[in-house]
Specification:
Length: 783
């Protein structure tokens, strides 16, 4: 209903204030993401009407391209918030193959609406994780930092019930004794394009300064970007105080800083306001005028000190030097650094490195600029040797670093040196001391996963969602771990949640696509890769992952085109080598050794890690003398590390088994393949080698064991590449022609759009043509 110009709805034990942006059930506020809340309001506005999915998406998401799965996840979250049952709905009914309808009855609550509209809006004090994280309420957030210190160093985290009444609504819920704070991006009131970078630059400065103050815990710039993204905003959007408060209330932070700046002749005036997040009250306003732009870095500390005093946190941290001392005294260098952080957050490493190198050329002692170059090379990139020297330079300038920065750099340097246990220890310290640093949870989980500690890695990510229930990268990590564990439905739901939190980020669709791919839903995988590339046609990660998907359903020609496209856009020799290796692999799969050899020739200049395909070609050509040399070279050069942690040992174990098999060492080959299958798959690669053991059983005539293995694989992934074909071969060779024909048909159906000249396609069609599909059931029954 609409009362006094305000949209307010009441039904059963639920109250929805569309203007205030909150939902209450049984008097307690229930948190929904902004778009999900908008979907609920849209259903209420059109109650009693059948609404098509595409209509809801068009009206709620407007110009943003999203897939149906995002809406489906929103409906799931709404049902959970309303305690509605899909099978016996009280409020939202699914219209099969069409959409949804709100079927609840609204109460006529005009007086209550007026009364509620006049009352203050309560800050959400309870968040529940999605079903991916667990159905129980999350950890009592006021105890999180203590539990982190006690538990993360042992076996992980436990998600416990929390009692909202046991904590103050103003204190930081994640770090005992600290006040939580968000600093929003500034408004450029002078509209001076030359100063526009200060919108984010000033925010960076205040975040850095205030983070060094004991008693404060400040959201990072990355978390701020995520907050804006999940509410459909960008750093360039102008936000009023109410907008900022609405956004920040999702995090349970106690206070928020908003600000603006303007050029006044040669001078620049900065104005900031401090608001209590819960009440919306303006608690302080400060201003600073500098004589010229270049003076900002040397005078911003005064503004930070005033704000810290207003927050009751006037005791400085261990590093009392000013911002210009711990960062740089060159505003131009800081400008490049600030612009680079945007690129780092978007994983545009080459662009970030170029900007950071400009910053260090202006100020060679800019420690964090050196550190971020090292991070881009060694942690999010795949060139640790290049990253080490920059991180070492940052260490040499450690007197210009905050404690948190030193811990981060120590972790990054440990990763660059493949000292993963040390990196794990450093990130554990960061999580314990700075529990709002969600990237630390993500990095820690990647390291633990690489060490084979998947359950602990998953628990770390779950604990991270307690610190920030809507941090996109945490759900990306959760989905990735669930996927490799074969928990496909949960993994898909986690990555759908990631898409909902980052609908304009190509990587979210790439992650969802990869999860569909490993589950065997190649059509959905390819559709999501295509969506990622619509958002960014040059997103090379989605290009090669899409190529792998096409390869895995027999569309070799299209895969080859995409691999070449990937090579053309690859940002480094490592990636270019991966593209050439993949092309050679496809030709090898088609038994075309000449084309494979031609494709592999460029690999000699892209690093020894790609040598496996060169020697594999030699062995397939019958040059077994190369086998021993191959094993020795492989053991010396195979990369065990990549992008922030250990790679799975599965590919290496597979190749050792393959080499042993080619030398006639069947028992050794089987042992290596069994060990490979005990390690995690890498669904992002061209081949997960899930069928390695089944294939060797087939090759050496142990058909019953081969059949058992292939059937296991098809339960894991019903469209696993060539698994149905090889299962048919196993049945054929064991004399079970009816089952062979059945699985050849199954294979041809799953590869119905494959290239016609693929050897397996030709062989399957020949068998069916010669033996006939209309075999008597006698063969099947007898078998």
């Amino acid at each position: 209903m609409n009362s006094a110009g305000r949209q307010f709805y009441r039904f059963a034990d639920v109250e929805v204030d569309a203007d205030g942006g909150y939902l209450r059930r049984n008097g307690a506020e229930v948190h929904l993401r902004q778009k999900t809340f908008q979907v609920l309001v849209y259903l209420l506005e059109h109650r009693g009407t059948d609404l098509a999915k595409n209509q809801i998406i068009s009206d709620v998401w407007k110009e943003t391209a999203v897939v149906d799965d995002v809406l489906v996840q929103s409906i799931k979250d709404i049902r959970r918030a309303l305690d509605d049952d899909l099978r016996k709905p009280r409020f939202i009914r699914t219209i099969p193959k069409h959409g949804y309808r709100f079927i609840g009855s609204l109460a006529d609550e005009k007086n209550d609406a007026l009364q509620t509209a006049a009352s203050p809006i309560a800050v959400p004090d309870k968040h529940r994780l999605t079903s991916i994280v667990g159905s129980r309420p999350v950890l009592l957030v006021s105890l999180l930092s203590i539990l982190l210190i006690l538990l993360i160093s042992v076996v992980g985290f436990q998600i416990l019930n929390r009692n909202a009444a046991s904590r103050s609504s103003i204190d930081l819920p994640y770090a005992s004794g600290k006040t939580s704070l968000a600093v929003m991006f500034f408004e450029n009131q002078s509209k001076d394009a030359e100063l526009d970078w200060l919108r984010e630059g000033l925010t960076d400065m205040l975040i850095t300064d205030l983070s060094r103050t004991r008693g404060l815990s400040v959201l990072s710039r990355g978390q701020l970007n995520s907050l804006l993204e999940r509410t459909g905003r960008t750093p360039a959007d102008k936000l009023g105080a109410e907008d900022a408060l609405s956004i920040v209330r999702q995090t349970n932070t106690a206070a928020v800083i908003t600000g603006s700046f303007a050029r006044l002749g040669d001078k620049v005036r900065l104005d900031v306001q401090l608001h209590d997040t819960k009440t919306g009250e303006l608690t302080a306003a400060e201003s600073l005028t500098v004589d010229k732009v270049d003076d900002i870095l040397t005078q911003i500390d005064l503004l930070s000190l005033k704000l810290a005093n207003r927050l009751g946190a006037d005791s400085p941290g261990e590093n009392v030097a000013g911002l210009a001392s711990v960062m740089t005294n060159s505003l131009e260098a800081y400008r490049y650094y600030s612009l680079a952080l945007q690129k780092v957050d978007a994983l545009h490493n080459l662009d970030a490195i170029r900007l950071l190198e400009k910053a260090t050329s202006i100020d060679p002692e800019f420690a964090m600029a050196h550190a971020r170059i090292g991070y881009a090379y060694a942690v999010t990139g795949n060139e640790p040797e290049k990253g080490r020297r920059h991180l070492e330079k940052a260490f040499q300038l450690s007197s210009r670093l905050t404690e948190k920065d030193r811990l981060n750099i120590a972790a990054w340097y440990a990763i660059a040196n493949t000292d993963y246990q040390n990196a794990i220890d450093q990130f554990r310290q960061i999580v314990a001391k700075y529990p709002l640093e969600t990237e630390a949870y993500y990095r820690l989980s990647r390291l633990l996963k690489g060490e084979g500690q998947t359950e602990e890695a998953l628990n770390v990510l779950k604990a991270g969602t307690a610190a920030d229930p809507n941090e996109k990268n945490l759900y990306n990590g959760i989905g990735g771990i669930l996927s490799v564990l074969g928990r496909h439905d949960e993994a898909i739901a986690a990555h759908q949640h990631y898409v909902a939190l980052a609908p304009n980020e190509p990587n979210s669709y790439d992650s969802l696509a990869m999860t569909y791919q490993w589950a065997g839903d190649y059509a959905s995988a390819i559709a999501n890769y295509e969506q990622a590339l619509r958002l960014n046609p040059d997103f090379e990660v989605a290009i090669i992952h899409s190529a792998h998907a096409h390869f895995q359903i027999g569309q070799y020609k299209q895969a080859l085109e995409l691999y070449q496209k990937y090579i053309d856009r690859a940002p480094s020799d490592v990636e270019r080598g991966r593209g050439h290796w993949s092309i050679a692999f496809v030709h090898l799969q088609k038994r075309n050794l000449d084309l494979a050899e031609k494709a592999a020739k460029p690999l000699v200049k892209f690093g020894k890690e790609w040598n496996t395909i060169l020697y594999q070609i030699e062995i397939e050509k019958g040059n077994l003398a190369k086998a021993d040399e191959l094993v020795e070279t492989f053991l010396a050069d195979h990369p065990a590390n990549g992008r922030g942690g250990h790679n799975s040992p599965r590919p290496g174990l597979y190749y050792l088994g393959y080499f042993a098999l080619k030398k006639g060492l069947n028992d050794e080959a089987i042992s290596n393949f069994q060990e490979a299958l005990r390690s995690l798959p890498q669904p992002w690669d061209i081949d997960t080698y899930e069928d390695c053991l089944a294939n060797v059983y087939l090759d050496i005539g142990r058909f019953d064991e081969a059949i058992t293995e292939y059937e296991r694989i098809l339960r894991l992934n019903p469209n696993y590449p060539l698994a149905a074909y090889h299962l048919a071969q196993a049945y054929e060779k064991s004399g079970q022609n009816a089952k062979a024909a059945e699985n050849y048909h199954r294979f041809l159906e799953s590869w119905k759009d494959a290239d016609a000249d693929i050897p397996e396609i030709i062989a399957a069609r020949r068998f069916i043509s010669e033996v006939g599909w209309n075999l008597t059931q006698r063969d099947s029954n007898v078998s």
